[in-house]
Amino acid sequence: MPRGGKREGAGRKSKDELYGRKVRIAENKISDRLPTIREDLEIIAHGAEQVEEEWVEACTVTVDDVRQMAGGQFAKIKRPAFPDAKPGELVMIRRKIIKLPPDYRANAYLFDRVGGKPTEKVEVDTPAESPLVAAFGTAIAKIYGPTDDTSNVDPQGS
């Protein structure tokens, strides 16, 4: 069915026409990684540990030392911490472990996936005299015939 005008292809393009290919590519990438994504979500849900490490070249690490000089005096010096390290060799100088708390949203998501998401009750406050209620009642009466709730509605809509 033509949309938006007389010319072929006129009018607003559907979301599928605009983004369909990109969405399918993204879905394929995600579907390939689903087991890993699920495992990551479980880790986040239960609380995870994040490890931060700092690595530097071994030849740049020094330690403070005290040496006795020729005159019997002591002097502070810096000496290499790893004198036998090869050039370019890395050493870890700092490691920090951060314990992350369990994530409520991740737990709720997993629970909803396993147990089924509960339906949410939506209440609409519409006055009984509303034209919307009358039109809806008339439409129901036309389709299904009068019922107990719509017996006061004219099936002809007049």
> How do the helices and strands follow one another from N- to C-terminus?
HHEEEEHH
Strand order of the largest sheet: 1-4
Q: Which structural category fits the helices and strands? A: alpha+beta
Mean pLDDT: 82
| Percent in helix | 25-40%
Number of structural domains: 3
- The coarse overall form would be elongated
Strand content: 15-25%
Q: Tally the beta strands.
A: 4
Biggest sheet: strands, sense, closure? 2 strands, antiparallel
What Rg, in angstroms, do the CA atoms define? 36 Å
Low-pLDDT residue intervals, each spanning 5 or more residues: none
- Put simply, the count of helices is 4
Distance between the termini: 33 Å
Structure description:
The chain has 158 residues and is of the alpha+beta class. The chain has three domains: 48 residues, no CATH class; 51 residues, no CATH class; 35 residues, no CATH class. 36% of the residues lie in helices and 21% in strands. It has four helices and four strands. A two-stranded antiparallel sheet has the order 1-4. The protein has a two-stranded antiparallel sheet with strand order 2-3. A hairpin with a 5-residue loop joins β2 and β3. α2 packs across α3. The model has no long low-confidence stretch (mean pLDDT 82).
